[in-house]
């Protein structure tokens, strides 16, 4: 059993990381922004004793020393998984994303260095956004952990999507630079997921507060996307359950230290998601885009980049779920929110 701090426990991905940590016998302190969110997570795990699941309130990861109290737990922490970071495409100003992403990441590393001397491993959730060159991707390119997004500060200001990509790239760079400069007692592992799909297990009361990557499934089932399938964006996905396991294996496996992990299941397109929903849930078929309305969500005609997930399969030992399983389970998990009633 390892004593782990998980940041952003109320999030889509973190909720799965928490499930895996608890199922594998670890003891977890998770940070959330409010007591209400802590109470909701507590209610979802009635079988877990307080000494294996407790909470620390961190309202804003962008504040200096935000994690100082959260990391000083008794018994002391042995590992940290940092998932908290804003993920949306409606920032008015790039700084809304850049500051919490970068300060949150460097902040947790500094707090661990100062106040949690027994921590041996910190795992940070980065993104394919920190790998992918969105400005020059070609069908010949095969992405792996060796690649870095070349996005600049100037490009971060061009669009909310660029602001998000830059936030992930600069935050991950800052984490590796911290390790290089400070040579702390812990090692760093970074998880770089592409689009994350699959069932929600975090506590939501409304489809309006759904995490960004699940929104395309909501919009297809609700019929909002009937006249225009949303563009796919990046054409790689991973299931959130495999991603949860990847984070925990990155804590457990000594060989994961000092490495990035590009955790990819396969290619996908929004047009394929629509097709799977139509086949598996024929009652919603009439709401799905067809013909020309499907085209924006299809693969580009000149092909799409490849990926190499060898390291995640060989060092972490992950076997990735296929797209159909992720979509079927995502839709089932979203129906109780009334996504088919809009
Ligand atoms: P969610 O929006 O569901 O989770 C984000 C979490 O970060 C929430 O717990 C949120 O708290 C917390 N958070 C955001 N800003 C702050 C802040 N200023 N102070 C404190 N907490 C904050 O998104 P995901 O679960 O999808 O994302 C989790 C991580 O995975 C992020 O780092 C994201 O960049 C990364 N990622 C996600 C991908 C995806 O497709 N989903 C793909 C690649 C990477 P609250 O909900 O209370 O606001």
What does this structure look like?
With 342 residues, this protein is an alpha/beta fold. 37% of the residues lie in helices and 14% in strands. It has helices at 12-23, 35-44, 68-71, 95-115, 153-156, 160-182, 215-222, 240-252, 270-280, 310-316, 323-334, and strands at 3-7, 27-32, 53-57, 79-82, 121-125, 142-143, 187-192, 195-197, 236-239, 259-262, 266-267, 306-307. α9 crosses α11 (323-334). The N and C termini lie far apart (45 Å). Bound molecules: NADPH dihydro-nicotinamide-adenine-dinucleotide phosphate (NDP). NADPH dihydro-nicotinamide-adenine-dinucleotide phosphate binds next to α1 and β8. InterPro entries: Epimerase_deHydtase, NAD(P)-bd_dom_sf, NAD(P)_dehydrat-like. Residues 4-259 form the NAD-dependent epimerase/dehydratase domain. GO terms for molecular function: oxidoreductase activity, acting on the CH-OH group of donors, NAD or NADP as acceptor. Belongs to the NAD(P)-dependent epimerase/dehydratase family. Dihydroflavonol-4-reductase subfamily.
